[in-house]
Amino acid sequence: MATEREVLEFIIVPPFEQRAAVAAAKERFENYLGNRFPGYRFKVGPFAPVGDDEEFYVLPVMNFLGDDGENHMCTPPKRWFLSEIAEACRVFRASGARSLAA
Question: Contact, 10 vs 60, CB < 8 A?
Answer without folding.
Answer: yes
